[in-house]
Request: fold
Amino acid sequence: MQYKSQAVAKPYFIAAIGLFVGQILFGLILGLQYVLGDFLFPAIPFNVARMVHTNLLIVWLLFGFMGGAYFLIPEESETELFSPKLALLMFWIFLVAGALTIVGYLAVPYATLAELTGNSMLETMGREFLEQPLPTKLGIVVVALVFLFNITMTVLKGKKTAISLVLLIGLWGLAVFFLFSFYNPANVVLDKFFWWWTVHLWVEGVWELILGSFLAFVLIKTTGVDREVIEKWLYVIVTLTLVSGIIGTGHHYFWIGTPEYWQWWGSIFSALEPIPFFGMTVFAFNMVNRRRREHPNKAAVLWALGTGVMAFLGAGVWGFLHTLAPVNYYTHGTQITAAHGHMAFYGAYAMVNLMMISYAMPILNGRAANSNKSQVLEMWSFWLMTVAIVFITLFLTAAGILQVWLQRVSDSPLPFMVAQDKISLFYWMREWAGVAFLIGLILYIISFFVGGDEEKAA
Amino acid sequence: MSGAFTKSMARNIFYGGTVFFFLLFLALSFDTLSTLPKRDMRANMTPQIAEGKKLWEVNNCIGCHTLLGEGAYFAPELGNVIVRYGDEGVKAFIQSRPKEGIPGRRSMPQFNFTDEQLNAIVAFLKHVNSINTNNWPPNSQG
Reply:
């Protein structure tokens, strides 16, 4: 590794992978509850398991983003991190706060947790993805601000590159838009309107800047293509992202009490959202084809290509599938949304983190790349997880189409639960695909412990 | 990309485009906020409805159900549940959930709500049902 302080990234990556395992285990519990309704009831009701599943996802992605930034920024800025000690301190605070929150979800009823953590002082809990108790939310703000201070100071004292600037904008945006999670008026329409300023402007806005900068960084390192070319691509991609994605927020404003005109704004701009993802795919393949060197870390290059393709399919194609208002009128709030959510999060954010970890971990361990044996196993895990998520998405899409038909389109619409029973075959198949995903993840973890002849340090 | 299109041009388009579209988004949002009172029925807001929303939140109802299509897809849409069950039907359903669940079926917890709390939840759900949602959901099944 070029700079000693990059080493602080390592605990972040390890924690990210650990929480990822937890996320998948709870995903399997949820999948089983879809078909065996009372599985683990009343010890772990569905809503609790889902909170754990989605919150672990968010937290592990944030660990990955922070670890990735701590690895990337010193190298881009060509200087040591402003304060490695602060980075390490924040790691422990974030990990302990995250663990306590998950324990809280599992140990006591949610209403009790709300009471114990002072939700009545400032009511922010009980909204999807933002279920964290007030102290956790405040903790996230503190950790994010200290992290941003650390990263920003490093960039300020060192070299400023397009990659680090785009990353900084993404990370600052992440922190700023999280503040809307503290605004929860009694007016449910207003609540929902601004809830999306956190949720949409994260995943279909500033997070894509983080994704783009990570991808650009790894492509520069592994392909040796000229920085000027790669950074130009990066600017074009993030321009397309924000031009389509900011007003694309409107595709959430069709049916929640907001005015009709959002059906036009939302449909048109969100229909453009696949373009930046397509740009990322073309970008990744183009740069790898024009490579000027053969980087020994083939696994990292595979993840880079994979995230381009899967983000385009999951976020782009599966998003477009139900984003036009006349279609969304029928698909809104069905398994179609769940199908899109799974492939989009895996393809865009899980994979870009796994790419960064794949590239950085060997270097943090003092070598350019892992042994061939280890990489082969990692690539197996890539294919298993990726194919599994494709099947999860296909099965949920099939379930969703049937649900829409049975419950909303047919001449004699069926009640929700009756329709659910009729499509349970697809939920079973989704669960088995989930088991395949877990096997892929286990192989991924094993790949870290496979020895063999190592590639020499670069 | 050809040599005529430089990195600094790309950067300027990025900053310019982002600022322009963010301002456009803010303008649309301001317009929305000014038209919302006609659609979100805030004139009918009562402390009971606010209490109902709080109960909705602190019991994490959104962890299984959708409300106006947002939430989890494990249990039925509740934005229009009043249409399906009526006030008394909703209360009776919530009250009658067995503590240990229903064998083999998706089960809702028994929350042991007081009558006052049940009335607040119903008031909240009735309020949500009155919001102008551009005729969503397509039918009463949600």
